[in-house]
Structures are given as C-alpha cells and as structure tokens.
Here is the input.
Amino acid sequence: MALLNKHLQRGQVETIGLVVIVILLLFIGIFALSFSVKDEEVDENILTLKANALRSSLLKTSICNITIKDEIGNCIDNSPECFSDCPQFNLVVEGILKDSLENEGYSFKSGNVKMGNCADKITSVSDVVNGQKIEIAVCRR
Amino acid sequence: MKDKRGNLQLTESVLVMFFVLVIIAIGLVVFYRFQLNSLHDYENEYREKQIMSMLMTLPNELGYTFMGKSENAIDTSRLFSFGNDYGFKTIILEEVYPKSSEAVDCTRENYPNCNRFIVYDKTSQRFENKLVESRPVSLYYPLEDRFKAGKLIIEWHY
Here is the structure.
C-alpha cells in the first residue's frame, strides 16, 4: 500500500513538472510571437504620405514662369521652355527629389526618363501629362 | 532508517521548492523586462503616430487657399503669426529648390529673401533624445506669386 502511494506521489510530481514545462514553453512562444509580429502600419502610412507630398510639391514648383509639371510636358515634346535642354532640366528634378527626402530613396519615371531605383517601393497617386504617366515613388526603409 | 528516508524526502522537497522559486523569479524578471520593453515600444509608437498626424495636419493649418480652394501648399506669409503650443518640439520649414549654399533664417525683415523658417521651437536641457521626421511640402510666396519646393521637419524632444 505504502509502495503504491509512493508511486502515485511520484507520478503526480512528474505530471506537475510536465505542466510547468508546457506553461513555460507557452510563455516563451507568446513572447517570441509578439516580437516577430511587429506593427509596421505607421511606417507604411508615413511613406505613403511622403510619396504623395513629394509628387504634389515637385509638380507644383515654379521654374521661370511655369511649373515643373508644365516643363515635363514640354520635355515630352522635346521643347523645354526654361532650360536649354531636357537633360539639364532632369538634373534639377533629380536634385529636388533627392533633397526633399531625408533618409529614403526615390524612384521617378516619366516616359523614357528614369531616376532613382527602388527594390520595394510605395508609389504616389500618378499624374498624366501630355498623355504620359508620371510615376513618383518612395523606397521602403 | 525511517528517519533517514524522511530527511531525504524533506531535502528533496526543499530542493524542488527552491528550483520552483528560482523558475518563478526568472519568470518574473523576464516578464518585467518584457513589460518595460513593450511600454517603451508603445511610447515610441505613440510619438511616431503623433508626429505623423502633425505632418499631415500642419500643412493644412498653414495652408494657402485661393478662392476657398486648397492649393496644397504652405502660405509662407502666415508663418510669422504662428502661435500654437505643441510641447517640446521644433518645427522647421526648409526651402529645397531653388537651392542656396547657406541657410538664411527668415524674419519679418528679410522675408522673402531667406530660405528657412523656424516656425516653432521649444526645447529643454532635460531632453537628450529627439525623434525627427520630415515630409516634402510646397511653399507659396505670395509677394512673388511662386511655389517653391520645401521640406517640413518636426523634431520631438524627449
């Protein structure tokens, strides 16, 4: 009888030990999960805001008596108004894009003109000038 | 013989209790650290959300409207009468194009021949860290009737 009781007690202790180990593993799992599933929503929203603000600010900027948007249209027809040639104008656009962002990369596409490069990007609302789509994007961090 | 066995069982129980207590203590420390970390994460997330909300709303507060229609640009002539309290922050508007070699802070006297507006500046020596976020903006100069490319920079001191 005493031997049976001892066996039963040992069995109970082992069961409790097992339960403790399972609970510990569960806690570790929950911690690991909460670290791995991080909220990236804020980052995404900031980049979308920046992409749209960059497009709006760039296209609205005045150069001589017209806007950059107008000059892009002129360059599509290969007749720039404020610059002697379109590559010179493209350099100005590239400078604005670079200086407007702090730590992010950018990508600009209008017809054959391509500036910057992103592996993964957030694109702004696109604009159409002279039937050609202007696409401005900010690279993901 | 029975005494010895009893002693052995007692020692075993004490050891088990000791290890259980050690495990509980380690668990408590880990839990405390985790809670502290998540609190810091919440704090940072809150700051990021607040800064993002400011980046979104500030250009509208200082916005240039023409015939009641928003022009998605900041009216630079309104920047000198900016009187809101935003806590310990620095709000800067910087001209990006036309590009100048050196930054000239704007005052009522030198406007519009300048390229940087320190719209709001409240700092304290208590704070050593700052969270900086920026966004591109369009700056409207009513005296010249021109839009210039700019950057809105918000620094949160903490």
Observations:
- Chain A has two domains: 1-38, 41-139.
